[in-house]
Amino acid sequence: MAHPAATLTSLLRASTIQDHDEILKAANAAIKASKTDIDAQRTRVVALLKLDRFDDALRAIAEGGDVLEKECVFEKSYALYKSGQLEDADRTLETAETPFKSTRAFRHLAAQIAYRAEKFPDAADTYRHLSQASGGLPGEENDLNINLLATRAQLEWNGLSNILDEQERQPSRDHLEAFETAYNAACTCIARGDLSRASVFLKRARDLCEASEDLSADEKKTELLPIVVQHAYVLARLGKGAEAAALHKSIVISDISEAPTRAVAHNNDVAIDVAERNPYLTQRIIESVTALSGSDKLFECQASILRRNRYALDLQVQKFEGVESSTSKLILESPSPTASAEIAGLGVISAAAHARMQTGSKALKEILSLLEKRPTDIGLLLTIIQLYVQMKNPGPALSLLDAFLKRLETASTPDHEDVRFAPGLVAVAVSLCRLQGRQNSIRAELAKASRHWRAKPEESAASLLREAGVELLRSSNVEDIASAGETFEDLVAKSDKDAVAVAGLVASFANNDYAKVEPYLQSLTPVERLTAGADIRGLVDAGVASIPSSAPLSKKRPADGEAEKAAKRRRKKRLPKNYEEGKQPDPERWLPLRDRSTYRPKGKKGKKRAQEITQGGIVKEEETLELVGGAGAVKVEKASGVQGGKKKKKGKK
After folding, report:
1. From which domain of life does this come (predicted)?
2. How far apart are CA 41 and CA 38, in angstroms?
3. Is the pLDDT of residue 472 over 60?
C-alpha cells in the first residue's frame, strides 16, 4: 500500500481546480498517518477554503497548534474575512512576518478586508499602489480596475470623494469594455447623482454580460441579477416607474444567491409601488424579507436607507411614539453637533413622529418646542426651515439658522467649526438669503466658508469652494476678488484639470498678475472658438433682453414730472349696466329720487303729502317773515287756529 504522504504529493502534482474533495481526503489520510505533518495539515486547510468551508478551516488551524497557526497566517485571516469576522482577520494579518507583508497576496487580502470593514480610504490607497506596481499575474490588472472602481463608488456614497482626483471620479470609455467595470462605473455615477449616465452604463453592462462567451448560462444569470436590480432602482429614481416595475417583474428574487443583494431587491420591489399597497401588510413583508443572518451584512449606506424605509412604514401605520423614542435615542447617542447625513435624516423622521405627520403651522407649533430640547439637532432645524419656506415665510427660518450658526461659532472648537461650515448648511443659508435679496450676506457667508476650508487642505470641499469663488468674482469689492483668486488658486493646486477652477483663476488675476495666469491660458478654449457660431448682427438687431426686477416698490413720493403725467391720464368711460346704444337717457337721472316726476311715495304720510300737492286740495296760507339783520325774508305756513298770537282756551262745559 502506498504511503499517504506520497499519495498526497502525487495527487497535488496532477490536481486541477476540480480535485479539492480528493485532495481533502488524501490530506486527512496523511494527517491520520502522521499528525505532525505540517504540509498535510496546511493542504487540508487550503482544500477546506477552496470548498468554502471556512469554519472547518478555522477549526483545522486551531487543531494544528501554534506551529500550524504561524504557518497559516494568511489562510486564517482569509477564513476569518469570509466568515465576517473582520476585526479578527485584520489583527491576524498584522501578525504576519515583515517580508510577507510586502507580497501582492498580502496586500490584496488587506485591501479586501479594509473594503468590507468600510475603511474605504485604506482600500483605495492599497489598490492604487497595486495597480501602479509591476509584477502582477495575468488578468490581475482587470481585477484591480474592478475593485478600484467599486472602492471609488463607496467613497462617493460615504461623502469621501474629496480624496479622489476629479479625473478619478469621472467614468471613461475604458470602463465600457467589460461588464464588471461598466457596472462599477454606474454605481459611481449613482453615488454622485448622475442617474442618466448610470442608466447608460448599466444597459452597457447588461449587454456585455449577455454577450460574454466566457460565462455559462447559469453564470450569466447570476451576474445579470444585480445589474438588473440596480437598473430598476435607477429607473425608479429617474421617475420612470412603469419601466422600473416592468424590469422588476422580470427578476426572480429568490434566484439571487447573495443575501444582501436579495434584501435590497425585495426593498426596491416594494418601494416602487408602495403607494398602492396596504402599509400594514407592507411592513410585515419588509421585516421578513430584509432580515439578514450569520455573516451576511449590508454596507452602512444600504442599511441606513432600509432603516429609514422601515421608519417611514412605521409612520404610515401610526407608530408615532415608538418611532420618536427610537430615533431620539439614536440622535442623543451620536456626537453633537454632527453633520452626518444619517443623523440628520433621523432628526427629520423624529420631527414627523412628534408632529403626528401634520404639516404647516400645526406641525411648526409641535416641533418648535422640540428644538428647545435638542438645539443642536440639524435634521430638526432643517425640517423647521423647510416648513417656514413652504409657508412662504423665510424670515423666521433665516433667524433660526443664524442663531444656530452663531452658537456653533461661539463654541470655537474644530468639530463645531466643521459643522458650522458644512457645505449643506452653507447652501441653506445662501438660499434663504437669496430669497430675501441679501446679496452682501451671501458673499460674506461664502467668503467665511472659503477661508475655513482653504485652511484645511486635507479635508477639501471642492464644490463649495467653486461656488464661493464664482460668487465672489461677481463682487466689485477688491477684497472679495482677492479671496476668489486665493480660492481658485487652491483648487488648481489640487487638480489642474478642473476647468472651472482654471477659468476662475484666470479671471481673478488677469488684470493685476498676468504672469500667474499665463501658464493656464493654453488650457482654456479660445474666445474665437467659443464665438464661432454666434450671429453678432442678429444679436445686435434683437437688442438686449431685460430681466424684470424683483426689487420691492419704492414708497417715496413721485417726482413732479411723474405726477403731472399721472394727472393727465384719462379714466376709461364707465357705462351703466342697463345702457342701450341709441336710446335717450332719462333727463331726470341726476335728480334725487323724491324730486322726480315718477316718484310715488308710500305709506299714510306719503299719501297725505301727495294729496296736498294734488289739484283741489286745501290751500295753505303763507306769510312772509323778515330775517334779523336784513338778511332777507322767507315764506312760512301760517299757523291755523291762532288769534293774536295766542291759542284760544276752551271753556268749561
Report:
1. Eukaryota
2. 5
3. yes
Nearest to 352 by CA among 313, 305, 308, 320: 320
- Chosen domain end from 86, 104, 132: 132
* Planar angle of CA 399, 404, 408, nearest 5 degrees: 145
How many domains does the structure of the chain reveal?
A: 2
**CATH number for the domain that contains residue 463:** 1.25.40
Is the CB of residue 637 less than 8 Å from the CB of residue 622?
yes
Kindly state whether residue 215 falls inside one of the protein's structural domains.
Answer: no
Q: What is the mean pLDDT of the chain?
A: 82
In the chain, % of residues over pLDDT 90: 19
Q: Which of 487, 502, 527 is the last residue of a domain?
A: 527
pLDDT tens track for 545-604: 766 655 555 556 656 555 565 555 666 777 777 777 777 877 787 888 878 888 777 766
Does residue 413 lie within any of the structural domains? no
CATH number for the domain harbouring residue 87: 1.25.40.10
The tally of CA atoms less than 13 A away on the side-chain side of residue 305 is 13
CA distances to 426, 569, 584, 596 from 587, in Å: 73, 29, 8, 10
Contact 448, 414 (CB under 8 A): no
Q: Residue 11 sits in which domain range?
A: 4-132
Grid cell digits, residue 356:
403626528
**CA separation for the pair 506, 175 (Å, rounded):** 33
Q: What is the distance between the alpha carbons of residues 245 and 232, in angstroms, rounded to a whole number?
A: 7
Residue 509 maps to a domain: yes
pLDDT tens digits, residue range 502-554? 888 888 888 888 888 888 888 888 888 888 888 888 888 888 776 665 555 55
With contact defined as beta carbons under 8 Å apart, do 109 and 93 qualify? Answer: yes
Query: For residue 326, what pLDDT is reported?
Result: 92
Cβ-in-10-Å burial (0-12, 13-18, 19+) of 107 comes to middle
Q: What is the torsion angle, in degrees rounded to the nearest 10, for the CA atoms of residue 258, residue 259, residue 264 and residue 265?
A: 70
Q: Which of 411, 410, 419 is nearest to 338 (CA)?
A: 419
Full-model pTM: 0.69
Instruction: Quote the pLDDT of residue 615.
Output: 52
Does residue 269 sit within a domain?
A: no
> Within 117-178, where are the H helices?
120-132, 140-157, 166-169
Cell of 265: 431587491
